[in-house]
Amino acid sequence: MTRREMMAALPLAMAAQTPRPPNIIFIMSDDHAAHAISAYGSKINRTPNIDRLAKDGVRLANCFVTNSICTPSRGAILTGQYSHINGVKTLNDSIDPKKIHVAHLLRDRGYQTAMIGKWHLQTDPQGFDFWRILPGQGAYTDPVFIDAAGRKKYTGYCTDLIGDFTLDYLKQRDKNKPFFVMCHHKAPHRAWEPAPKYKQWLEDVTVPEPDNLYEDTSKRSAAAQRATLRVGDDMTKTDLKVDKPAGLEGNPLRKWAYQRYIKDYLRCVRSVDDNVGRVLDYLDAEGLTENTLVVYTSDQGFFLGDHGWFDKRFMYEESLRMPFLARLPKVIPPGTVNRDIVLNIDFAPSFLELAGAPTPSSMQGVSAVPVLKGKTPKGWRKSMYYRYWMHLGGGHTVTAHYGVRTERYKLIYYYGQALGASGAVDTPTPPEWELFDLQKDPREMKSVYGDPAYAKVEKTLKAELTRLRQQYQDLT
Ligand SMILES: [Ca+2]
Questions:
Q1: Separation of 468 CA from ligand 1 center, angstroms?
Q2: pTM of the model
């Protein structure tokens, strides 16, 4: 080969051997339900910036959380493991600082790594070149952030500050290395405090109510009846910003409280959407869009008045479903919608595959990259396992449960253990089951457990639940 031929061949050969892995920006909000995103067909909200990811990339219709509450979902996302394996089962658990997770593995692969915003895993972040986190839940207004230099109070609105810090980090990055940035918004978590500029937005609007806002939960399971998630009755002055009007109770109270609650929630989401737009605009301006995976998700779903509730925790659809939108133009065809079951434990293996790194065998999730491309691999999961550990100690008296969801059915088992705040079993409850036919009853209004017409389904699902518990080594 002549020198000239060698020179001509070299860049191609180098490109083939060491293609630049994609940058990854993982944007996650807190408690943002899919049905408050217009790309998911929201009847109450428009999210033009988040929708850009759906238009130019993929929207997962069935992405689910494995334990629907903040800290455990974050632990599962980082480690690719269920709560009982990674040890982060409740809000009170911390991630083991020695635990190797996705950020370490990407850093080993040559990525610069950053974690900005809500962390909520108690111990300081490990595996990141840069981190700046909120203490615990953090504050909406003039929040304190913690980084390697210590604690500092910043002036401004939390969501905008997290957007600022993310852009600041990107601007000073090492341009010779790919980046992995976790941008975690606190919003729209309770107590739903909007930015000053959006406080008046929606004031003259009546937000549509969900069809089951006034559901009579006395007809549901004892677990559902026990839960203190009711819009109105279980909300405080901090949530509603004003005293409940004297004499207002029952459905009229719920009607009034729903409007107070949902407007503030949507106002908080609007700032999140703005800040997603800022990141996307920056990537466009820098010419980074083509080779950057941008994900938007939330740590779990949320009840937006569904069943008369707010909050999450239950395995019911609104709480179980995570929004998940992703754009990577070189890999993901635009406008892809996928209905396969993807779990939060799959996120880390997916990022590792894109980075060209193997998934450690200790991770229980699997790479969803083929699914993101719209090409379901043979043998992809047809069911998922869920377990909620927070029990009665979590402030909303949601009973411990586990269950299985397939493409059509959901079986939930409240196994009768109710833990108090001390961690001791203080209020054992009678075990009970629920079974929903999601095709006939997508809103999960009536359990068909014990209905002879579903006897065969029930038997199959119980066997599947046992199989999944063995597969994931959850045998307690
Ligand atoms: Ca959350």
A1: 25
A2: 0.94
Distance 77 CA to ligand 1 centre (A): 13
Are residues 227 and 215 in contact, defined by beta-carbon separation less than 8 angstroms?
Answer: no
Cα(253) to ligand 1 centroid in Å equals 26
Mean residue pLDDT of the chain comes to 93
Any idea what the Cα angle at residue 230 is, between residues 385 and 90, rounded to 5°? 40
Give the Å distance between the CA of 27 and the centre of ligand 1.
14
- In angstroms, the CA 10 to CA 267 distance is 53
CA of 76 to the centre of ligand 1 (A): 13
The residues placing their C-beta within 5 Å of ligand 1, an ion, are 30-31, 70, 299
Domain 21-471 homologous superfamily, CATH = Alkaline Phosphatase, subunit A (3.40.720.10)
pLDDT tens, 290-311? 999 999 999 999 999 999 999 9
In the chain, the amino acid numbered 195 is A
Residue 32 to residue 174: CA distance in whole angstroms: 32
- Residue 11's pLDDT band, with cuts at 50, 70 and 90, is very low
Distance 138 CA to ligand 1 centre (A): 13
> How many CA atoms are closer than 13 Å to the CA of 190, on its beta-carbon side?
17
Let me know if 200 is exposed, middle or buried by CB neighbors in 10 A (0-12, 13-18, 19+). Answer: exposed
